[in-house]
Each structure stands twice: as C-alpha cells, then as structure tokens.
Amino acid sequence: MRLYHSSTVSVVKPDIVHSRDYLDFGKGFYLTSIHEQAVRYAQRFIRRQREAWLNAYEFEFDPSKWGIVEFDSYDKDWLSFVANCRAGKDISDFDLVIGGIANDKVIQTLDRYFEGELSENEALGLLKYERPNIQYCIRSQKMLDDCLKHIESIQL
C-alpha cells in the first residue's frame, strides 16, 4: 500500500527519534494513505514560509508479526487511546496504530474532557474531523526499517 508523509524535508530514512511526544497515537512516524490529505497538511508549511515535501512510501507488512491496533471510528476506545497519548499516559507497545485524526481543537477539547466539562459523547462530537481522513502511526523502528520503503520525495 502507498502511504504519504508531509514534512519540511525529504525523509528517505524515517526514524522514531525525530517524532514529537504527546501526539494522537503517541511517538511515532505518521503517514496517511490519502494523497489529498498529505498535500493539505503540507500546505501549512508553505503558509509558514517553509519548504514542503511530500514523501511517498510502499508499506508492506504481515499483520501476524506485529502489534497492531486499528480504530474504525471515533468511539470511546479511540477517545481513550488519544486522550492517554496526548496526556503522556500511553503504556501500550503497539508497533502500528491506525485510525482517524482529531481536528485542530483536540487539545482544548481533551482538556475540557479531562476536567469533566464534557461527556464522552460531547467530546467525540467535537473531535470528529469533517473530511474523510486516516493516519498510520508506525511506533517501532524495527517496523519502519522492515516494512516501509521510500519511493520518492517531491518538493511542493
């Protein structure tokens, strides 16, 4: 399957080391299978007067050899996982996490959820992203090295 990663640089050899903490699915290398989503994300770099690169990869893996969790919808399990990752409380050891992206107001919404101002259903309603989207977060360097092959990097 072809996956895309937007960045300010060409990323030929991805690694976990350069990932930020406290993201939706924790520390890892984030990709999407939706080309348009990756291009939209890269536009934020251009708006900030920075270079924007669209990196393309081939991703092949045997699901029986890796720890994988997939969230098919914005449900309680997804909310709990994202909330734990964003709060730095994720203790899972998945190699790959697949699911929807929370919108730009995720931090504010999660803070309100943590404080008890919002119920689970209210928080889920606010976190739904209007456009179809998906993110793949590869969280182990071994999976990156074994399963993700760089195809090309195109400067936008």
Helix and strand arrangement:
Blueprint: E1 2-7, E2 29-31, H1 35-47, E3 53-59, E4 68-70, H2 76-86, E5 96-99, H3 106-114, H4 120-127, E6 135-138, H5 141-147, E7 148-155
Parallel strand pairs: 4-5
Antiparallel strand pairs: 1-3, 2-6, 3-7, 5-6
Q: Quick recap of the structure?
A:
The protein is an alpha+beta fold and 156 residues long.
What does the model show?
With 156 residues, the chain is α+β, with helices and mostly antiparallel strands. Helices cover 31% and strands 22% of the residues. The protein has five helices and seven strands; from the N terminus they run ββαββαβααβαβ. The protein has helices spanning 35-47, 76-86, 106-114, 120-127, 141-147; strands at 2-7, 29-31, 53-59, 68-70, 96-99, 135-138, 148-155. The strands form two sheets. Strands 2-6-5-4 form a four-stranded mixed beta sheet. The protein has a three-stranded antiparallel beta sheet with strand order 1-3-7. β4 (68-70), α2 and β5 (96-99) form a beta-alpha-beta unit. The longest helix has 13 residues, at 35-47. The protein starts with a strand and ends with a strand.
Strand order of the largest sheet: 2-6-5-4
Shape: globular
Radius of gyration: 16 Å
Largest sheet data:
4 strands, mixed
Structural class: alpha+beta
DSSP strand tally: 7
The run of helices and strands is EEHEEHEHHEHE
Instruction: Estimate the strand proportion.
Output: 15-25%
Unreliable residue runs: none
Q: Number of helical segments?
A: 5
Helix share of residues? 25-40%
Distance between the termini: 22 Å
Average pLDDT score: 91
